[in-house]
Amino acid sequence: MENSKSSPQPNDSPQIFVLRWGHRPQRDVRLTTHVALTARALCASGFILSDTQDPHIQETVTKITKSWGGNFHFEMGTPWKRAVRDWKAKGGVVVHLTAYGENIQTSDILNRIKKTNKDLLLIVGSQKVPGEFYSSEVSDFNISIGNQPHSECSALAIFLDRYFGGKELAKPFEKAKIEIVPKERGKEIKSTMDFH
Amino acid sequence: MENSKSSPQPNDSPQIFVLRWGHRPQRDVRLTTHVALTARALCASGFILSDTQDPHIQETVTKITKSWGGNFHFEMGTPWKRAVRDWKAKGGVVVHLTAYGENIQTSDILNRIKKTNKDLLLIVGSQKVPGEFYSSEVSDFNISIGNQPHSECSALAIFLDRYFGGKELAKPFEKAKIEIVPKERGKEIKSTMDFH
């Protein structure tokens, strides 16, 4: 786990790492890639693909970070129990994103999470997660992004957007070789990449 | 296109339909399913899988709607040009979600979209979209959810969350046979399903 504060934090908020649990290498490759890219684009600082290896995802995330900037940490294969234990040992808080948790809209859970003012490890499941994820031994908070079934990718996106108050979508990424110039019509890219 | 207003609208906002373009039946099945479920869970009123058929997605979405409630419209195979033409003919507005568009955070585009007070067709691409999607013949607005590459699923989620001001995550769904009771620990479901 990397502790440098060089990622494009939208403000002085604590660092957020995303832990993806239950990834199935062939079946989930695109979805997990989207989860990782969402984490990066919305200013999480790192991504842990727990308990398994998937070089395709590593390659995509590394390539995107190299071109689009920032200092996004990627690791894979770490057992989830060790990741959680290490995170807590360093004083961090563990947040489990689940449709069963306290609703981000109807409860005060987001404020309680923010008030800890600590680094967050967000657990994002894929298949059905082990029951112990809900317990206080693992998760300090169980938060739901609505209580309907939808997508861990969407849930993560809304959590980060609300946590950072939208600022994450305006933040420039350091050392970017490619940048989009937002516009009303068409596509414009600024690039310092050498295509020769 | 269905025009009933019986979906779980978070308020009297106009209806939103999502048009998924460029779906590749095998490759994109899980991602497109997540896009459709996000649309439903976040109170869009319908989903159009354009230009192709995918019975797996239809089955999943229909099953979820039957159990979890609401009146979510699903259609597939409609050519995108016809869907756009019909939408505009009925006075609706077309919004293209793209990383190249005006940034939802740094521009006033969301307010301009809301001010139209019209039904919205949200175009969500998968592969690289045709250049004409950016033109005024197709899209009234090109909006980006940040200008970094991430996920159409995340982009859709954040758009809907901001459009509805979060209320979509608190809205009960009509005729639900299953409901989650949000809680701090563990899982609780209320169900009127007959499991016999």
Notes on the structure:
Two copies of one chain form a homodimer. Chain A has 196 residues and is α/β, with parallel strands linked by helices. The first copy, chain A, has helices spanning 29-41, 55-68, 80-89, 109-116, 152-163, and strands at 16-20, 46-49, 73-76, 93-103, 120-124, 141-144, 178-180, 189-191. In chain A, the strands form two sheets. The first copy, chain A, has a six-stranded parallel sheet with strand order 3-2-1-5-4-6, with helices on both faces. Chain A is globular, with a radius of gyration of 17 Å. The model of chain A is unreliable at 1-7 (pLDDT under 50). Chains A and B meet through α1, β4 and α5 of A and α1, β4 and α5 of B.
| Spatial extent as radius of gyration of chain A | 17 Å
Mean pLDDT across residues of chain A? 93
Q: Largest contact between protein chains?
A: A-B, 58 and 58 residues
Helix/strand/pairing class of chain A, anyone?
alpha/beta
How would you characterize the largest beta sheet of chain A? 6 strands, parallel
Q: How many DSSP H or I helices of chain A?
A: 5
Content of β-strand of chain A: 15-25%
Oligomer: homodimer
Report the uncertain regions of chain A. Answer: 1-7
Shape, principal axes of CA atoms of chain A: globular
Straight-line N-to-C gap of chain A: 36 Å
- State the share of residues found in helices of chain A, binned by percent: 25-40%
Give me the side-by-side strand order of the main sheet of chain A. Answer: 3-2-1-5-4-6
Number of strands of chain A: 8
Q: What sequence of helices (H) and strands (E) makes up the elements of chain A?
A: EHEHEHEHEEHEE
